[in-house]
Structure to design on (289 residues):
């Protein structure tokens, strides 16, 4: 990315193809975070945090980083209480939702332009400019979503790394040679059915090792889930469009008298509903008027 993007460049100077290189560090961080080997995971998470820092720093130099994102990036999370962290998470979720909606708008524009090009039509200069702008907006919104995901990844790594360090310290303690307890034929702590001290110690060691085994592994990646969501949204949009077309086709077959009669029935039902539900009828103070 450094060879493609100069240190003096800002986002406005770059075309869509060059802007995609900004995402390289984020994807490297994401890749490092997927390490499942518990002996290598701590180093991988530290590498992921380093890539996150490079990614956010490049976004700030390109003037892509939002002030709110920069504030969260620089904030000391240890000083935040649970309610502040929850508010930050809600704000990130809302902005991610807005970014997805803008991405859908840009994709719709590009789909319309591509459909026209595939039909053999020649694009006008205005349409070419619109295509370039839509492509840039699409990449910028993808970067915005990656910034939010990078902040969450950083927070997750900071929480997990101390746990992995504790696991390593416990492993070092277990690796030290132990003096075996003296062998005795007499039961320890009573008669039959009582566990010996060595058995209790073995059980505790097993529990410690099992506590850090990876569980609840995701069945799909965030990108795969996003593709499923986008596919469902496209199918719903196509279904709504088809229903609207069928309704318009049905209405076109009606005569003027039939349309007038349908409208009269609708108006009559609406008047009946207003008579049964006068304005303010649902108010607690019965402020009808």
């Amino acid at each position: 990315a450094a060879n493609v993007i100069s240190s003096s460049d800002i986002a406005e100077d770059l075309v869509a193809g060059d802007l995609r290189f900004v995402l390289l560090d984020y994807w490297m961080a994401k890749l490092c975070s997927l390490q499942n080997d518990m002996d290598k995971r701590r180093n991988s998470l530290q590498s992921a945090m380093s890539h996150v820092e490079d990614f956010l720093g490049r976004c700030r130099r390109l003037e892509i980083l939002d002030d709110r994102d920069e504030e969260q990036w620089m904030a000391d999370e240890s000083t935040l209480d649970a309610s502040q962290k929850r508010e930050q998470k809600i704000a990130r979720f809302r902005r991610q939702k807005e970014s997805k909606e803008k991405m859908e708008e840009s994709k719709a524009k590009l789909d319309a332009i591509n459909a026209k090009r595939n039909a053999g039509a020649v694009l006008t200069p205005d349409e070419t400019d619109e295509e370039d702008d839509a492509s840039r907006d699409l990449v910028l919104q993808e970067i915005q979503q990656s910034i939010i995901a990078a902040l969450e990844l950083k927070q997750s790594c900071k929480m997990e790394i101390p746990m992995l360090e504790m696991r390593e310290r416990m492993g070092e303690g277990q690796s030290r040679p132990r003096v075996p307890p003296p062998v005795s034929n007499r039961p320890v702590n009573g008669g039959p059915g009582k566990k010996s001290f060595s058995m209790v110690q073995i059980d505790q060691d097993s529990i410690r090792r099992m506590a850090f085994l990876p569980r609840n592994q995701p069945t799909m990646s965030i990108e795969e889930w996003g593709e499923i969501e986008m596919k469902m949204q496209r199918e719903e949009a196509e279904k709504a469009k088809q229903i609207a077309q069928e309704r318009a086709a049905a209405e076109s077959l009606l005569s003027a008298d039939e349309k007038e009669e349908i409208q009269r029935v609708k108006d009559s039902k609406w008047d009946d509903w207003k008579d049964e539900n006068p304005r303010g009828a649902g108010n607690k103070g019965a402020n009808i008027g």
